[in-house]
Amino acid sequence: VTAANQTLARLERLLVVVPWLLEHPGADVAAVSARLGVARDELLADLDLLGYCGLPGYGGGDLIEVSIVGDHVTLRMADFFRRPLRLSLREAVTLLLAARALAGVEGLAESAVLARAAARLESALGAGADGPRLAISLGGPGEEHLAPLRTAVAANRVVRLTYRSETRAATTVREVEPWSLTAAGGGWYLQGWCRTAGGPRDFRLDRIRELAVTGETADPPPAPPPPPTYRPEPHHERVVLECTPAAAWLAEWAMAESDVPARGRRRRITLAVDHLDWAARLVLRMGDDVRVVSPDALAARVRALAAEALDRYGDAADGSPRGA
Amino acid sequence: MDRLERLVNLVIALRETRVPLLASDIRTRVAGYGQDDHEAFRRMFERDKADLRALGVPIETAPLDRFGDDRLGYRIDPDAYDLPPLDFGPDELMALALAVDATGLGATAAGGLRKLEVDVGVPGLTRGASGVGLEVPLAAPHLEALAEAQLTRTAVRFPYRRSDGQSATRTVDPHALVHRSGRWYLVGRDHDRDATRAFRLDRVAGDVRPVGEPGAFAPPQAPVDVDSVVPAAPTGAPATAVVEVSPDLAWQVARGARGEGEPAADGWTRFTVPVGDPDAFASWALGEGPHVVVVSPPALRSRVVAALRRAAEQP
Asked: Does the predicted model carry a pTM greater than 0.80?
């Protein structure tokens, strides 16, 4: 923090404290400083400085009167600071964003209160075509699990999930100690300790088929919970893929360990994966934009998955599916 | 003299003056300026003015307007300075603080919460509020600058990284900000194309600069229809597809399907599902591999089959 920023932070604080002190003569300095999280001496120094400020002329009737008796402070002659400074456009619009986003979350107890707060901010900003135009769609399938999971997170209750894993396209039942819920990339995620896997895991809510909140209380999460990101580990297998420019985003998305130019405008990326099946499904999904360079086992797995899928389409590519 | 003292005195002087103050008046009359030479005063005053404006102090420039004097002075309109009563209840302010915590927007929003606390009568009421149990990360670079430009109807210019990796400069009338699938988009009129376009905020590759004056364009009358702008579905794309899915996948597909599924062979289920973006749909079907069969439309079916063929025959 630079000295200039520090000065402005003190000014911002004064412009909030002074209106409050004018309303509450004889307020307790220690209580105010504790509430604002400011050291008592720092607050006293700022108030003391106010006594040297006032109207041009700076004579007897011009200066702000600051009287500090014991721990009680009273301000007079500061009517120009009776109101706090108006919300800046940025403050108002950012508060509105936060309120609108959370108010739209299904099943949130605070929704109605937040909607009222949002309406007040909208009126402050001016409504209608000239007002703020913000559209936030966080949701996604699986939102029905949010309310019970919030309760489970708040009470550290172990949950039992019937879950279709993205990694292996298999449905399993898992016991999870829930830590937090996060909206990311258009979906909701539960982070927690998966007892079945014996490690921290993220679960997409739309992949939860059944959810049961058990009566068992888990230990509180390690503080703070680890971020919901995938971390390559040494024992993971390395796969090398060649991507066309259309698939170049894969490097960032899958946290490639290396990303180097290849023939044409392609990229050659190396990923650390804990299941080859996950990589095989990724390669299939990317169609012609991704080619397997190594290992051979991955290329074989892609071929096998594709052949198995083709099998269900029957012999003729445009024929009817088997059983239809 | 302490700079804080000078800034407080400047705010008081500009707020309480009846006529706009000339820079020379400020130099001679406001405590904290007088002793410096002219050039030093200029630099000091310009910096103070910019910092106060950044805090939201509404310093205006206005003509003196007396006896034909057209010189420009400075003042603060008390009505523009004072927070109007917004009547927030303590419960609303607490909920707002939780929302700010959950969205990670505190860097900008915290100052606003402090101001609103004064009206509730409890300084520091919402300090450290957390525990809504949800994380909805919404903070993004340029978000506040673009929201401000949208509100003041000011055109903006920024370098933009296209999907092919090339960078180009865009000039846009900001109409709306849209958050969808974890991404922020600016929707507005692209000056060079004279058409409405959506821009991903994470592809803005440098500073967002205002162009021209506020109020330079009329906002569109109709509310922004998110679905029509982001993502732009190709016209003529099929609206729905019929798929058969394995028992393992059926429950998940059932969530987004139109109507109930029908039983198919081998315990599979047949569903009619919406197709937003055909590319994304084909990717999904390919990624699910042996768990899904695209029955119709024929174009999507043969596209998936062809891609599977190529994958099966890859060396």
From this structure: no
